[in-house]
Design brief:
The structure holds 2 protein chains of 2 kinds. By secondary structure, chain A is an alpha+beta fold. Chain A contains 5 helices and 5 strands; from the N terminus they run αααβββββαα. Chain A has a 3-stranded antiparallel beta sheet. In chain A, strands 3-4 form a two-stranded antiparallel ribbon. Chain B is an alpha+beta fold. Chain B has 3 helices and 6 strands. In chain B, the strands form 2 sheets. A 3-stranded antiparallel beta sheet of chain B has the order 2-3-6. The chains are: A alpha+beta, B alpha+beta. Chains A and B meet through α2, α3, β1, β2 and β5 of A and β1, α1, α2, β2 and β3 of B.
Chain lengths: 134, 110
């Protein structure tokens, strides 16, 4: 996997090497500490609060729009008939609200620009066929 | 001093304002510094995604990069010409259990 990036890159490669795998809050805290210069304790506190506020806002059904990143929107789903794929039994799914995320154009462009990482396995791109196999 | 401009949409600025209002930090943090923190926090996520990494945030959710298959599209105004749409990468967000449940219960009491 190549890690070449476009103009938006402000990433510290040595940090991602150190962490690898999935990014977690701990790594975000580490990067805030390195990039912005708060103490680790303060950075941890503030990062936690940022996600807490986004979460509370969404839990109240309000939109969150982050320029350059994307929008979180709570959408209404009507009640519909569903089917248990295992038994074929019909069930009624209640109306509900779901949280959707739409990445911004900027973020999508970064993902799709030339020289971005090569997605070799991408098991998650075909969730339907995976379900059917089980 | 910092009125929240839009009561129905939260933005980066709004997040910084809320953090400032809540206080409770070890020492006071300026509005500007808060905006920098908010910006960098989200930037870190974008950077990780751009490298094809997954971002797992406890009690919040998971962001990952998924590939949309190539497909044949059609311009509805000119349906005789087919357009090849190449595979595209996009970001999927799956909210954590807590957030998902909080959202799904919305408006049920009304």
């Amino acid at each position: 996997m190549t890690l070449s990036r476009g103009h938006l890159s402000v990433h510290h490669p040595e940090i991602s090497k150190q962490w690898g795998g999935s990014m977690t809050k701990a790594e975000i805290v580490e990067q805030i500490y390195e990039r912005v210069g708060f103490s680790k304790k303060e950075a941890a506190e503030l990062v936690e609060k940022v996600f807490e506020i986004i979460k509370e806002t969404l839990a109240e059904g309000e939109k969150v729009k982050i320029s350059g990143f994307g929008n979180f929107v709570v959408r209404h789903k009507n009640a519909r008939k569903g089917r248990n794929p295992q038994t074929g039994q019909e069930i009624l799914l209640d109306a509900r609200k779901v949280l959707t995320f739409k990445p911004s154009l900027v973020l999508k462009n970064v993902l799709n620009e030339e020289g971005s990482f090569v997605d070799s396995e991408s098991p998650s791109s075909e969730p339907h066929s995976m379900e059917a196999n089980q | 001093m910092f009125p929240i401009e839009d009561h129905h949409t939260l933005t980066k600025k709004g997040i910084a304002q809320y953090v400032a209002q809540q206080g409770g930090t070890e020492r006071p943090v300026s509005q500007h510094d808060l905006q920098v923190i908010v910006h960098h926090t989200l930037d870190c996520i974008s950077d990780a995604l751009a490298e094809g990494r997954k971002v797992e945030l406890r009690n919040f959710g998971v962001f990952d990069v998924v590939t949309r298959k190539a497909r044949v599209g059609r311009n509805p105004k000119n349906p005789t010409v087919t357009v090849q749409i190449p595979p595209k990468k996009t970001v999927r967000f799956r909210p954590g259990k807590e957030l998902k449940n909080a959202v799904s219960q919305l408006g049920l009491a009304e």
